[in-house]
Amino acid sequence: MSHKNKVDSELKRRFQENDPEALRDVYVAYKDELLNWLIRYNLNMEDRLDIYQDAIIELQHKLVTQKVTLEKASIKTYLFGICKFLAIRHHKARKMEQVSDSEEQVAEIKVEEDLSENSKLLALSFKKLGAACQELISMFYYRGLTIKEMVELSNYKDENTVKSAKSRCMKKLKELVSYEK
């Protein structure tokens, strides 16, 4: 077993024994390298630190609860993976905030004369939907998010719940469009 693998095995064991020094050792060992690596996601230092700290907490939780054994990956590799996931999620959330700011503009669409009759009907019907339905339909069709991404960025419990809610919203929108005709 190489020195690196021995160190990793020792750290994993210490994590499982809830050794607080193990957490500190990992935190210090990879901090600078990961903070520099996170620059590629155009994050400021505060966001990079938040992501790194969240990743350390997630790593500790996974190792202590033995939800991950890290048989094929080192702690460093797994930590990089967690940071990457958190950075992407942070980036998407930031995009959502930007889109949410512009949603007010979208919600107040002025039906202009150059729109086709069907587009006018759709815009008018869309405005009559509840806020939750407008959000779901916007996330899926306007922003192009997947169902999985919608679950991550919303308060829905799983993909099936999002699918059902989106289906009900689309049904309601179709009914409103038909009623307006």
Give an overview in words.
- The chain has eight helices and no strands.
- Helix 5 crosses helix 8 and helix 6 crosses helix 8.
- Helix content is 76%, strand content 0%.
- The protein is elongated.
- The chain is an all-alpha fold and 181 residues long.
- The chain has two domains: 3-92, Rna Polymerase Sigma Factor, Chain: A, CATH 1.10.1740; 109-180, Arc Repressor Mutant, subunit A, CATH 1.10.10.
Short characterization:
By secondary structure, the chain is an all-alpha fold.
Calculate Rg over CA atoms.
Answer: 23 Å
The main β sheet shows up as: none
Number of strands: 0
Contiguous low-pLDDT stretches (5 residues minimum) are 107-114
Helix content: over 70%
Q: Count structural domains.
A: 2
Count of helical stretches = 8
End-to-end separation: 74 Å
* CATH fold-level assignment of the largest domain: Rna Polymerase Sigma Factor, Chain: A
Overall residue-averaged pLDDT value: 79
Order of helical and strand elements: HHHHHHHH
* Global outline: elongated
Q: Output the CATH homologous superfamily of the largest domain.
A: RNA polymerase sigma factor, region 2, helix turn helix motif
* Category by helix and strand content: mainly alpha
Report the CATH architecture of the largest domain: Orthogonal Bundle
What's the level 1 CATH class of the largest domain? Mainly Alpha
Report the sheet-strand fraction.
under 5%
GO molecular function, one term: sigma factor activity
Family: Belongs to the sigma-70 factor family. ECF subfamily.
Protein name: RNA polymerase subunit sigma-70
Keywords: Sigma factor, Transcription, Transcription regulation
